Structures are given as structure tokens and as C-alpha cells.
């Protein structure tokens, strides 16, 4: 066991505070990572505040982790001391179900083991990236290419793969019209990735406040959803809409923006149930879908793609002591576009 400093929520809805946690000793196939940067995801706030249901406390959030390998177990073959690596939203899975065997560990039939707010196979709770170090099985560690700065790479481990996976699955690319709903932590990555994949990209945001940013990051068009004329003007336009917002949408209105056989894919997860009139789907054979992160293989593909295209997250680097303020600013949409903790400040 190794004792490391971390920031944790001692109870639901409680402010995060500095503490210490225990990391397991490095086992045969484990990698010990000195965490350099940890992104703040809206998911962290949902879970710290039990917005998605009962959680495990104390909780050390953080599943956008970038760092350097400092030790490897004797059986490790994929990584060496000094390697630049990342850890995303999961640290293990059953590895035996059809989904795991297909490289889709995020959809493990038994449920993947979350990087935090989860229970490991050893029966111990998992603790995330708001900490100095983490120990992870090599099969759930990603290599971060040299072409991406570590601080800008951290958010790719959730925001990047969460948007890359549906864009790839629904064939975003040349000749396709893609809309991104929301211009936040996930949304700005969706814009960058859809543009790099060759799609014609439109941002649908509540206002035009971030229009200049959206166009700079790769959007071809930018519309305000607070203007009813937007839904009239863009009716029947898109092949794919990726919703990154964690608030309920008027699904009828957004489905009306799809072409025949178009898909509206949700990667944001509202805390409350949503309603839907099925006639919104029947006319035009449309699809309402969801998507959750990506498997390890696809996450590595995404990182390599980002390095090839010079893509990193737009970040605001903060000290660990600013984390509670950062949470409030995320809720107020006052970040452009991802807070990243410099873990040297923990």
C-alpha cells in the first residue's frame, strides 16, 4: 500500500477537501502512474452530489487522467517507466462477456468497474484522478502520443472518447451534416472531432455567446436554439445530431431537424426522466439513441487520431484548492471549455 494525497468529497453534496487515500501495491500486470493532470467532468459533479443515484463515500472523483508511468509490475508488456499515459472512465471489466471480447468494455454485461465510485474485484472502492498517483491494470491504461500536451490530453479520456465514439459509429465524415447540441466540455470536443473527420458541422447552442469560439474550433454554422426560427430553418437538415447537454431536451423539436434515417444520439445524461412522443420517430424512420464513452481499443484510436490532427482540449488549468469553485462555474457554464487540475498542487 502507498499513501497519497487526494481531494475527496466526504459525503454526498459536501465540498471536496484535501485528504489521503491508500493505493494498492503494484501487482504483476499493474502500472503505477504519477498523475500530472486531471480533468473535471460534469459527471464528477453528478456523482459527488448523487444526482445519478446512491454513491460511495468518501469519493475521489476524476476519470480524465494524464500522467507518467513510475513503476510497472513484472508481467507488464505494454508500458515502461517514463511513458506518457492516460486513464479514462473505467479501470476493469469482466473481460469474458461478448462485449468485452469485442473491445467494448464500456458495455460489459456485468458492468465495467469505474475509475471512481466503483467497487474493484478486490472488494475495495475505487478512487479517481484528483490524487497524486493511481495504480491501474495495464489493459486499461492508454498511451498518450507525443503530439498532445498532457494537460490538453487529460479531457480526451472522457470528453474526447465520449464524442468520438458516436461520431465514428454513425459514420460522421465527408458528405455528412452533423449538429452538436451544447458548446461545453463535451460539445467543443465534438466540434473539433467532427470537423477533423470531414463532416459539415453545425453548433446548436442556447445563445450565440460562444459563436466565435465555435467557428474557430471547426464549426461551419452556429445557431441559437432559443430562437424558434432555428427549428423552422433547419428542419430536415442533419444526418446526425449529438446532444452533449445534461438537461432534458424537447426531443420532438430536435428530431424534426433530422433527415430521413437520421439519428439523435445522447451523450449527456440528465438526472431526471425525459418524455417522448413516438410520432417524432415514426415520420422519417428516425433513431433516438445513446452512447457511453468507448472501449480501450477505440479510446487509443481516438488519442492517435487527435495527435495526427493536432487536437487537444481547450482548457483552464487550476490548482486543486479551486476545485469547489470550479464545480460551481461548470454548473454556471462559466468555463471555456474544460477545467484541468494541476495535481502538483494537491
Automatic annotation (TrEMBL):
Cofactor(s) listed: Zn(2+)
Residue ranges of every copy of the Enoyl reductase (ER) domain listed in the record: 14-341
Cross-referenced SMART domains: PKS_ER (SM00829)
Catalytic activity annotation: a primary alcohol + NADP(+) = an aldehyde + NADPH + H(+)
Pfam family, one: ADH_N
GO MF annotation, one: oxidoreductase activity
Enzyme class: oxidoreductase
Enzyme Commission number, as recorded: 1.1.1.2
Record bears the keyword RNA-binding: no
Zinc among keywords: yes
InterPro entries registered for this protein in UniProt: ADH-like_C, ADH-like_N, ADH_Zn_CS, CAD-like, ER, GroES-like_sf, NAD(P)-bd_dom_sf
Keywords, ordered alphabetically: Metal-binding, Oxidoreductase, Zinc
PROSITE patterns: ADH_ZINC
PANTHER family: ALDEHYDE REDUCTASE
UniProt record similarity statement: Belongs to the zinc-containing alcohol dehydrogenase family.
Name under which the protein is recorded: alcohol dehydrogenase (NADP(+))
Organism name: Streptomyces lancefieldiae
Higher taxonomy: Bacteria, Bacillati, Actinomycetota, Actinomycetes, Kitasatosporales
